[in-house]
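user: can you give me the structure for this one chain? C-alpha cells are fine.
assistant: on it. calling the predictor now.
[tool input]
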Amino acid sequence: MTVADTDQAIRATIHATWRIVQPRLIATLSRMLRDVPLAEELTQDALVAALEAWPSLGIPDNPGAWLMTTAKRRALDVLRRGRMLLDKHDMLARDLLQEQEIVPDFGAALDDDIGDELLRLVFTACHPILSREARAALALRMICGLTTSEIARAYLVPEATISQRIVRAKRTLSNSGLAYETPSGEALSERLASVLEVVYLIFNEGYLAARGEEWLRPQLCDEALRMGRVLAGLAPNEPEVHGLVALMDLNAARTRARTDANGDPILLMDQDRALWDWVQIRRGLRSLECAAELGGSGGFYALQAAIAACHVRAATAVETDWHRIAQLYAELAQLVRSPVIELNRAVAVGMAWGPQAGLDVLDAVAGAPALATYHHLPAVRGDFLQKLGRLAEARQAFEAAAHLATNGRERALMQRRAAALDTQNI
C-alpha cells in the first residue's frame, strides 16, 4: 500500500468514526458547557485535530475516546480563557483525569441515557426562539452531521438559504443562554412538532442517503427510532408521535431486502418479502393503531405510516392496494401542499390506473421550482415512459436522473436503467 493509499484509508476511518460519535460529542459537551453552538464548534476542532495527527501517529486503539478527550481538552481551554465559574472548570478537569485512567468504550452502541442526551440536544435546537426552518436545519447539522448541501436537498431549497439559517440560529442560541434541556408540559408540546420533524428527517437521511456511495445509513435510522420511542414515552397521548414511530418501524423493517450483496438498491416491487422483519412490522402496525385510537389517523406521519402499511400487508407485490395508496396520498396532499407528495401520488396513480394516468399527474407538478434538481422527478418519468413503450424518451429521462443524483448507488441504478433500454431498442 502506498503512502497515499494509507493516508486515504486513515482519512476514511476518521470520517467514519466522526459520523458515529459526533452526536455524542456534541451532546456531552452541550450538557457540560450549556452552550450548544460552542459544543458543536469544539467537536469540529477535534475532527481537525484528528485529521492533522492520525496520519503521522496512526489510528488510536479507541478513536471515539480520542475524539472525546480532545474535544474536552478544547472545552477546558475555552473555560480557562473565558474565566468561567470555577466549579465548571474543576468538573471538566476531574472528568478529563478520570478518562485518562479509564477510557470508555465509544465503539459500543448508544445506550438509552445517551439517547436521552441526544433528544435534549434536539429539543434545545428546536426552541421557539428560533424560526421553524432554522430549528430543523440546526438540529440536522449537529445531530446528523449533514452538510448544508445535504440539508438543502432535503428541503429542496438553495444551499445559501440553509447556510444563513444555521448561522443565524447558532448566533441566536449563543446570545440567548438557553438551557440544554428536555422540557415538560406546555413547553414540550410547544416544541414537539419541530422535534418530530427533525427525527423524521434524520430517519429519511438514514433510509435513503442524500450523498455518498452508500444507499443506506442504518445508524441514523436506528437513532431516529430510538428518539421516537423516547418521545412516545414523554408524550404518550400525542397521536403523531405514534404515527412517526409506526412510519419508521414499517419502513425500517424492509432494510435487509432493500440492497443486494454488493449494496446496490433493490426497488420495492422487486424485494424478497421473506427478508422483511415481521416482528418490527407488527410493532409498527400496533403504533399505527395507537395513533388511530388517539384520533390521529389523519395526521402527517400517520397517513404516511398507513401508506407503508399497505405495502407490508400485501403478501406479494402484485397484491398491493395501489388504489388505497393513491387515496392516502390525496389526503396527504390536502394536508400538506408539497410537490414531492404530488410526485409520490403520481407513482401511486400510475400503478393503480396505468402509466399514462400517472404521467398526467406528474406533468401537472413537473414545473415546480423545488423539483428542478430533484432526481426522482425524471426517474419516475422514465419509468412511466418505459411502460408506455416510449423508450428513447425514457432513456433520456433516466440519464437526466443519473446526472442529478447525488448518491452514488442511485446514480449507478439510473445509469443501468438507461443502458438497459439500449438492449430493448435493438
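assistant: here you go. Residues 238 and 294 are 7 Å apart (CA to CA). Residues 236-314 form one domain.
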